[in-house]
Amino acid sequence: MKIGALVGAMAVVSACSMSIIPQGAVRGQAPSPATQQDGEWVTGARPDAAAQPSYKNGAPPLFRPVDSAQLVRIGDDPSRATGAGIASGPDIASLSLGETKAVAALQSFRTSCSSLVRREDSSGLTRGVDWQLSCDAAQNWPANDAARFFASYFEAVQIGEGKAFATGYFEPQISGSRVRNARYQVPVYRRPDNLIDVDLGLFSEALKDKRVRGKVDGTKLVPFEDRARIDDGALAGQGLEIAWAEDYIDMFFLQIQGSGRLALPGGDVMRIGYAGQNGHDYTGIGKVMRERGLLADGKTNMQGIVEWLRANPQEGMKIMRENKSYVFFQELTGPGPLGAMGHPVVARTSVAADRMFVPLGAPVFLDMAHDVADGLWVAQDTGGAIKGANRFDTFWGAGEQAAQIAGGMSSNGQALLFLPKGAVARLVAARRNPGQ
Fold first, then answer.
1. In 100-250, which ranges are E strands?
2. Domain end (from 286, 311, 332)
3. Separation CA 60–CA 166 (nearest Å)
4. Same domain, 278 and 240
């Protein structure tokens, strides 16, 4: 299905599934609830940032947030969880995890926990060894008792005020081909060999968790080609094409999602997933178009953006080029798409989060106004627009229903993070005795 046929259902386009904004880009605070289009907030759709979450039919929240006065700050850096403050949440056994959600979350946790044990936790909340006990136990834990697993090995923690905002993402399907011909002219590139990722934290403690991407020119690291130069053929003739798309606009928005499917001639489907990004900052063209007054009232949504681009092809191409970010892909032949941990993300179970506030691989419990997102998730992905405490992007899979749910997912509520038992006590003790 082409994106053009889906835009009416897509109220949200989150740059998820393997960050299309370079790691280390400017990090903002968690956004307030709003309607999001092309990674940007729609004017007039944003409620009061200080408002308490509202719930359907006046139903009470599934848990009560801890008063901010009770938060304990383990560090001084507000751009990570330890500086935002933490507090113990309710007993996990008292939460309505939901049997189906708990079973799926256990399976996803089991899949990625081996990486969780090995990874350095950018949030500062845990060490790899903290997860070993639960990871070992998960391997043979009976699925029909999944809720007890989480209650046995984890404690619920509130990060900051616990107010959450969630959007949704999915796998779009567009028309494409493995070979180029008159109909299929838009290249789908694999990651170039000369694209380099640099961890700046290896050079300076002050630059920890900061990264840049570029290429080597002589003795210098310089920016990689931006979207305009790539569109103009900077990578042509290098054998980087893994497929060809029929429509540039469709491919542009598939890049924003970070993964997708190509409907091939003859009925086969080719699945492609994120393999890298050129290192340039992501620019949401929806915001650019609104600021220039290009979108009429009632046309500031995704459908209106695409309609304008198709009605104004020359100017539309210039606007799309203002998003200098460009995503490279790989063909996926197994489960997928792959999340930021290198493991497959699972529909209705995997969620993208900011690694500075959530250890990747950790369980997350959501209680949202849009209650289809309520329950247990596992943080297995990141996203360029997913920044700040309690900011999440829920993954809904592929197909028309997934597009509709993801498109309507723009909801506020509350969030709890599940950490290994004893982690909070260790953090508090370290704060009291910084020399240890």
1. 154-159, 163-171, 173-177, 186-189, 196-199, 211-217, 220-222, 241-245
2. 332
3. 19
4. yes
Going from the C-alpha of 23 to that of each of 36, 164, 356, 385, the distances in angstroms are: 21, 22, 11, 11
- What's the token pair of residue 196? 């380099």
C-alpha closest to that of 257 among 353, 178, 166, 337:
337
Q: Give the residue from 430, 304, 226, 236 showing the smallest Cα distance to 43.
A: 304
Residue 240 has pLDDT above 60, yes or no: yes
Q: Are 398 and 171 in contact (CB under 8 A)?
A: yes
225-236 per-position pLDDT tens digit: 999 999 999 999
314 is in which domain, residue-wise?
171-332
In a domain, 418, yes or no: yes
Percent of the chain with pLDDT over 70: 83
Q: Could you tell me the end-to-end alpha-carbon distance of the chain, in angstroms, rounded to an integer?
A: 57
| Residues 42 and 144 grouped into a single domain | yes
Neighbour count for residue 345 (Cβ, 10 Å): 29
Q: Same domain, yes or no, for 158 and 184?
A: no
Distance CA 387, CA 13 (A): 15
Instruction: Tell me, yes or no, whether 180 and 326 share the same domain.
Output: yes
Residue 196 is predicted with a pLDDT of: 96
pLDDT digits (tens, 9 = 90+) for 311-327: 999 999 999 999 999 99
Give the mean pLDDT of the chain. 83
For residues 26 and 123, membership in a common domain is answered with yes
Within-domain flag for 141:
yes
* Same domain, yes or no: 105 and 11: yes
What's the number of domains the chain is made of? 2
Residues 6+ apart with CB under 8 A from 148: none
Write the DSSP symbol of residue 158: E
Residue 33 CA, chain-centre distance (Å), reads 16
Q: Within this chain, do residues 295 and 367 fall inside the same structural domain, yes or no?
A: no
Amino acid (one-letter) located at 150? F
One domain, residues 152 and 289: no
**Strands (E) located in 110-152:** none
The pLDDT of residue 78 is 86
Domain harbouring 310, CATH code: 2.40.240.50
